[in-house]
């Protein structure tokens, strides 16, 4: 983004402010860009390992859901003991059988589909969590950039206070102003130095809060010109992020899979059995076959099916609500961006040049004896207050832009490949 260039007829203090704003950039030619900060935070995300483990668990659940029921090996001994003719072990009959449940209605495929659906929901929620993390990092970046800009304003305030203290001191020594005027100017100078030290400390703390996302230190610089970018206010409203909508879409698909599973459970599964029977009294062997099937008399699983359908309806309603509410928030943010950008541009183009010119005129008049030192201090205070106000507007604009970026999924391309759908 280009550095704002003052008009040829701009006041001297306005040119001084622009020069002060450019000095830190000369000392740090390569500040840390936002994209690199986001990438560092992603790779240092402590939740990545937990998601990988949950992803492995989801794949294992899908494989398990696709397994067939285990067969059953049975042993049955009849006529082992009794009365009369059955009192001897010679009449014993032993049967060894093998039985298998036959799943009908597509239960196995339905279970696997449910497992895949739950894995897709988990992945979509993970992507949302990644975008939320990027949003947090971007907000921290904005705070650091705003703190750096406030440091520059504090530097300019100190320069103005030093010049005023010098001029007032010269007039006091020449007995043109009372002694308390010099004391007042020195107090203003001390306040400006304190404000600069505080601004530097806040900027350092903001950088450390930002670097905490990748366990780094605050030994980097941020280009404060970044906060001046008002171009997003002129863009068109974007659509809601597909990542956010994917949560509702996968939940709806998972609900569809659960409906299919509950319907499959309503189909009764027969159990087939085959075996060999040994007749002890004659030494003969006979083959035995049979089967059984539950009677759907009391439990037809209809309530479970109704519950799954209600969950699908809820997922569809949540998806529609997410889309509507997100579109409303996007429209609100677009309007807010336009308002804040207009205010910042007018402050820069209309108010600040006039106040800077006022400072120059009042100082010239003060040196000629036409104004008091209070007039100089008041004019300088008005200029610094307007600059501070403009920075607050710019910071609010960038926070709104970051929220808009979150809602539209602007940084979705940075999602690590292991979570990308």
Describe what this molecule looks like in 3D:
The longest helix is centred in the first third of the chain and has 67 residues. The chain has 421 residues and is an alpha+beta fold. Helix 4 runs antiparallel to helix 6. A hairpin with a 4-residue loop joins strand 3 and strand 4.
Reading the helices and strands in chain order gives HHHEEHHHEEHH
Counting DSSP E segments of at least 2 residues, the number of strands comes to 4
Can you give the mean pLDDT? Answer: 85
Q: Give the low-pLDDT segments.
A: 1-29
Shape: rod-shaped
Ordered list of secondary-structure elements with their pairings:
Layout: H1 12-27, H2 34-43, H3 48-65, E1 72-78, E2 93-101, H4 107-173, H5 179-211, H6 242-265, E3 271-279, E4 284-292, H7 302-367, H8 373-408
Antiparallel strand pairs: 1-2, 2-3, 3-4
Key features?
single chain; 421 residues; alpha+beta; Outer membrane efflux proteins (OEP); 4-stranded antiparallel beta sheet; 4 strands; 8% strand; rod-shaped; disordered N terminus
In summary, what is this structure?
The protein is built from 8 helices and 4 strands; from the N terminus they run H-H-H-E-E-H-H-H-E-E-H-H. It has 421 residues and is α+β, with helices and mostly antiparallel strands. It has a single domain, classed as Up-down Bundle (Outer membrane efflux proteins (OEP)), CATH 1.20.1600.
